């Protein structure tokens, strides 16, 4: 079997998977995507005092402002997750979660940690894909108002979402480990970013990420009182969110700004 025949066969398998799962794949994608916000909102409730004390000590902002920060994170994240899962006010929920990402990036000094910054940007990419999906369902904030280029913003959201999602994989590549694995991973990342063989590449990355996530971020094997438990749990749910973003790419397609779409014009 030649390389082209193998790729065509693999694409057929991906298309078959999409046909079988098209009814519930978007729901699974949304649940995975918002999982890190859901987990963090719940953690704010159970670690209320620790989070408040950390912010108060780090920023010397006083008890009241530190409490407001924790409360805003709790309500903003849990409320946004409920709205997204119930398909109500999705665009407002996404903008709220964008705000939470920006707030946490500053409050926890993530801006100066390249790895965590790239992961937060990848989360933003997933939210962009959610915004694109909400536009495709016709749930615009300006419903009923005519627009000449209504699909253009959606297409660029999908492009931006794809490009930002690949930042997660750059934090997972280990250049001192398996060279072949890094090459394959990098190739798949590039394919998703440029929108070529997008569904197949994204589906392959989903499988790869799931395996990496379960193997490296098995927080359930670490006692809850150890700091490593929380670190692995954080990584696990952030990676799950990116998996959700990739599943949305599989469900929605790459959008108009992609090589897959341009091929149709050739």
Automatic annotation (TrEMBL):
This is Surfeit locus protein 4. It holds the Pfam family SURF4. Keywords: Endoplasmic reticulum, Membrane, Protein transport, Transmembrane, Transmembrane helix, Transport. The chain crosses the membrane at residues 63-85, 92-111, 179-196, 203-224, 236-257. The keyword Protein transport applies. GO terms for biological process: Golgi organization; protein transport. It is found in: Endoplasmic reticulum membrane. It is a multi-pass membrane protein. PANTHER family: SURFEIT LOCUS PROTEIN, SURFEIT LOCUS PROTEIN 4. Belongs to the SURF4 family. GO terms for cellular component: endoplasmic reticulum membrane; endoplasmic reticulum-Golgi intermediate compartment. The keyword Transmembrane helix applies. InterPro entries: Surf1/Surf4 (IPR045214), Surf4 (IPR002995). Its main location: endoplasmic reticulum.
């Amino acid at each position: 079997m030649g390389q082209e025949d193998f790729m065509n066969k693999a694409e057929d398998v991906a298309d078959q998977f999409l046909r079988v799962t098209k009814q519930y794949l978007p729901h699974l994608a949304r649940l995975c995507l918002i999982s890190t916000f859901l987990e963090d909102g719940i953690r704010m409730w159970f670690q209320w005092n620790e989070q408040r004390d950390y912010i108060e000590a780090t920023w010397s902002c006083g008890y009241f402002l530190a409490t407001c920060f924790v409360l805003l994170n709790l309500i903003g994240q849990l409320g946004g997750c409920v709205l997204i899962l119930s398909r109500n006010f999705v665009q407002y929920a996404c903008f709220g979660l964008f705000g939470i990402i920006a707030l946490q990036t500053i409050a926890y000094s993530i801006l100066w940690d390249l790895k965590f910054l790239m992961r937060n940007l990848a989360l933003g990419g997933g939210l962009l894909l959610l915004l694109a999906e909400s536009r495709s369902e016709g749930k615009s904030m300006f419903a009923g108002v005519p627009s000449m280029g209504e699909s253009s913003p959606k297409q660029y959201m999908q492009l931006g979402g794809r490009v930002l999602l690949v930042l997660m994989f750059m934090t997972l590549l280990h250049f001192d480990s398996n060279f072949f694995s890094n090459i394959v991973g990098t190739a798949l990342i590039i394919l998703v970013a440029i929108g070529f063989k997008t569904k197949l590449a994204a589906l392959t990355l989903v499988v790869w990420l799931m395996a990496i996530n379960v193997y490296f971020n098995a927080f359930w094997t670490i006692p809850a009182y150890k700091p490593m438990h929380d670190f692995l749990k954080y990584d696990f749910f952030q990676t799950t969110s990116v998996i959700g973003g990739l599943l949305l790419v599989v469900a929605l397609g790459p959008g108009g700004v992609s090589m897959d779409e341009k091929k149709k014009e050739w």
